[in-house]
Design a protein that fits this description.
Length: 425
């Protein structure tokens, strides 16, 4: 067995401790796979005075200087909570030629344009499988098993917190605040959950997916993501009446070679692979030019699922079996090219609100695919048309409406489905 590989860890919360435990409990298998023994000489934490259950030969410190001073570190695993915290650490390590494996999606989305070329210039790597879908190995799977495919479209449930909340609301009739509180109690949501429920977590992950697939950041259909705060129980009930479920979806589409993205709630119909993805699970559904429709599903967050993705990156790196880093054309989160994007003009929309019948009277710009549905004083209808025209038509009397893109069926199927449906007050 060759030289011992030395691994540092930055961050020792839920994920960091899960990585440490995995390295300890799976040490024999890992050393067999990489052909070397391994050590964890240092762990960087915020509070070094707090007791951690680690081996005596592992130093726990709150001083990054003690980490960067170690000349023989092979890899550092970085699991700090945000880009502001992680960037100085990762920049310094890559500058020194030390490979970094991170689960920090905000870091990669905001600073990948700087960090990835820096790693290349210093003959090391920045790995981030765990930053996209927790325990689902979606990046390596796409890069390794779909080399000859052009990815035409991707849709994903990539935030387990939002998915848990919507599942709880629909299955148990819980209000948003109640479901969020339970997500926080179970450790699925942070004390300040804004990045999850307002869509930013999914936004960062979509940026990373775009870079991985297309070598560049996407053009965004809207300046900011749309989260799940505005979704009410009545919307979930109305969605079920029409044969669907409301899910928070990250969408990425190749339009004439340009990746175009959105993050917003969708109405997912029954035959779509994302329809049955519940609780904290994540899923990625994509359309390949050769393979057609394919889906990846599994635990998107949590201590050991995320640790699994990190440790797999570590093993692949140390055993020299990792996929080549895709070329970086532009991973920055810019919208400068949005003016050149022409969105598709016709789509199916699920609209909820009040006074929908009155608002639809005389409209020539949009077509209805269903009768009006009713639930607890709220109404819903399926429409086709340009989104701007739908918004203009449906808000002419009030601004109480919510508009969801419909995913999972062709127009003919929707028409047939709704001819057979029974709509009642």
């Amino acid at each position: 067995m060759s030289t011992v590989k030395k691994i540092g860890i930055i961050g020792f919360g839920t994920v960091g401790s899960g990585v440490y435990e995995t390295l300890v409990t799976k040490r024999e298998k890992i050393t067999h796979l990489i052909g070397s023994d391994l050590e964890i000489p240092v762990i960087l934490v915020k509070d070094a005075a707090r007791k951690r259950h680690v081996a005596n030969d592992t130093k726990v410190t709150d001083r990054f200087e003690e980490v960067i001073a170690l000349a023989d570190l092979d890899v550092v695993i970085e699991v700090s909570p945000d880009a502001e915290t992680g960037y100085p650490y990762v920049h310094a390590l890559l500058s020194k030629g030390i490979t970094v494996i991170t689960a920090n999606k905000e870091l990669v989305a905001k600073h990948g344009e700087t960090l990835l070329p820096l790693a290349d210039a210093n003959n090391c790597r920045l790995y981030y499988e765990a930053a996209v879908a927790g325990g689902i190995p979606v990046l390596s799977s796409i890069r390794h098993t779909l080399k000859t495919n052009d990815i035409l479209q991707l849709e994903g449930i990539v935030n387990g917190t939002s998915n848990f909340i919507l599942t709880k609301m629909r299955e148990e009739g819980a209000a948003f605040d109640v479901a969020l509180a339970e997500a926080q109690e179970k450790g699925y949501a942070e004390a300040v959950p804004d990045k999850d429920v307002d869509g930013w977590d999914a936004y960062f992950k979509t940026t990373i997916l775009s870079q991985w697939l297309f070598g560049r950041a996407p053009v965004w259909q809207s300046a900011i993501p749309i989260g799940i705060r505005g979704i009410r129980l009545e919307d979930l009930t109305l969605a079920e009446k029409i044969g669907g479920r409301i899910k928070h979806v990250a969408a990425l589409e190749n339009i004439s070679g340009q990746p175009v993205a959105s993050v917003r709630p969708h109405l997912i119909l029954t035959e779509h692979p994302l329809y049955a993805v519940e609780g904290v699970n994540n899923a990625i559904h994509l359309e390949g030019s050769i393979v057609g429709s394919i889906a990846f599903q599994g635990p998107g967050a949590g201590k050991f699922p995320t640790a699994s993705a990190i440790v797999e990156d570590l093993v692949n790196h140390l055993s020299h079996t990792s996929e080549k880093q895709p070329d970086v054309l532009n991973i920055s989160m810019t919208r400068n090219e949005e003016k050149s994007f022409t969105p598709k003009q016709t789509k199916v929309w699920f609209v909820t609100g009040k006074q929908l019948t009155l608002q639809l009277e005389g409209s020539r710009s949009i077509d209805t695919l269903s009768n009006i549905l009713y639930s607890e004083g709220k109404e819903a209808v399926l429409l086709t048309g340009n989104e701007r025209e739908v918004i203009s038509t449906m808000t002419k009397l009030n601004d109480s409406i919510t508009i969801y893109p419909v995913t999972g069926a062709q127009l003919e199927k929707l028409e047939n489905m709704n001819k057979k449906a029974v709509f009642s007050r």
